[in-house]
Amino acid sequence: MKKKLVSILIAGFLAFGLYSQQFSQISNINPSPLPYPIYNLNNFYELNNKLVFTNSLNSWTTRLYISDGTLNGTNGIYSWGSPTHMIIPNEIKFCGYPEQSFIKLSNQLYFKLRNNQSGLEFLWKTSGDSIGTTLVKDLGTRKFCSNLIELNGNLFFMTTDYDPVWGNITKELWKTDGTQNGTVVINNWVNSSNFSNDVKIVKYYNKIYFSGFESDGSSIGTIQTGLVLPPEKESCMYNGFIYYKGIDGKIWKSDGTLNGTSQAVDFPVTGNLYVFNGYIYFSGGFSGAGQSGSELCKTDGTLVNTIILKDIYVGFNSSNPGNFISLNNYLFFIASDGIHGNELWKTDGTSLGTSMVKDIYSSSSGFEGAFYSCSTSYRTHQSIHNNELYFSIHTAWIGNQNGVWKTDGSEVNTILVQPSDTVGLILDVNCKLFTVLDSMRYNQFGEYVQDNSELWCFIDSCSSVGVTQKEDYKAYSVFPNPTNDYITIQSEEILYKRFEIVDQFGRMILESTIDSSDAKIDLKSLLPGIYFLHLEGEPEAFKIIKN
């Protein structure tokens, strides 16, 4: 009875237009419903102001697509060359870490594929069209065991090779410049106990780190240090240090060396860390009798300035704030106060300025899946578009406030803009806001009829472009580091940015503007020491060591 009533109410909403629909369906690539319709369009990434994504036709077949935001401009990408290497049904499946199926290098996207018939794996690249989609390297019997990561104009990854005769297992570190001859092994380890089945490579301070090793990209510069640093999505850069949750559950920091890694604050952390307006925000606090549980906290890296900003779920319970994203001098997050359930909150950095934006779902359980936590899922369910935050909501009841919402931080302007039972990824690409929705059909009785998921898009005139993928604002490299006389700021496109170099005390030493994709900055006049490079509009600083 309740489900039927909900359906009737939804039909009424649609009839009277009580929501502001903004999206239009721009693809029809899944005409027949699948058992799990929302998960077949995935892996959103921007390439040359277009959206590249994947579509899983079933559990073993995946195809590559590109879209400019129009129906005619949404097409499959096929490779040019041998038919046995084409991305075709019943043959190819994307493999590897879901949070990084693509990585950009020189205006091309690189990705890993597995042939399900042969079991062999390949490194591919695409420029967004069929001719520009080519095989980089056939890895033969080797298996990918890591993500792809960029360092100084090359990509690095790990593979596992098994010798069926002798039973040896070899881990190999590869480097590629995008050519077949330039895709080579730079280090290997036979039957090493240092590596698990899956290896996570991360980049900090112009080096890569994995399984207790660090590397500058060369064979001789790949050494075992014992330092294991967390992925970027589970850490933050603050005042020239990497801050993260340590194995003891407390706040740790590192300068990228084993000796420079230590506990920063003896204070519990339960979630990821996020830098906002000069502080690190996180979910944390002491639990137990007389304690507040896991609440909204902030720190400047010292114990004296580490506080529980607000006890949202008053008492011994936890509000578990998370899924942080900042907009218009506010930090937005999801939390539960024990009365309204999981809802959208915001803070200006003060206790009085921390409040619930809107009681969207009137239930003590709140809504589910509004933002997917980076610690549990690497899908993007939120995006800044035209100076507003767009996010998805899913509840247990079909159509009960489900769909794409937007907010400017005020209750009155927190509204449903596109109803849908299920919502997939959301990403702004050059003022085009893409998402994955079902087609939201209702029959003549006002009952919801489930269709398969498709690509939808909203295009308007933007005052700003929101980007949610961390890789996008780190699409440049700074090297050499350490340096004796100069540094180079290298980007995949021309940068027009003001930069500042400050010392450890925050004093500005040098400022100017760069206007190229390969800019050199003369540092010969600087005294030896540690400095920080700030690029205009970028949320993180580069630590520079001057010899």
Précis, in short:
This protein is mainly beta and 547 residues long.
Output the CATH class name of the domain at 229-372. Mainly Beta
Number of strands: 47
Roughly how many Å apart are the termini? 74 Å
What percent of residues adopt helix (DSSP H or I)? under 10%
CATH topology of the domain at 229-372: Lipocalin
Q: Mind describing the biggest β-sheet?
A: 5 strands, antiparallel
Strand portion: 35-45%
Indicate the multimeric state.
single chain
How many helices? The count is 1
Radius of gyration using CA atoms only: 24 Å
Average residue-wise pLDDT: 78
pLDDT below 50 for ≥5 consecutive residues: which ranges? 1-18, 80-93, 366-379, 464-474
Describe it.
- It is built from one helix and 47 strands.
- The protein has 547 residues and is mainly beta.
- A hairpin with a 2-residue loop joins strand 28 (322-327) and strand 29 (330-336).
- The radius of gyration is 24 Å and the shape is globular.
- The N and C termini lie far apart (74 Å).
- The model is unreliable at 1-18, 80-93, 366-379 and 464-474 (pLDDT under 50).
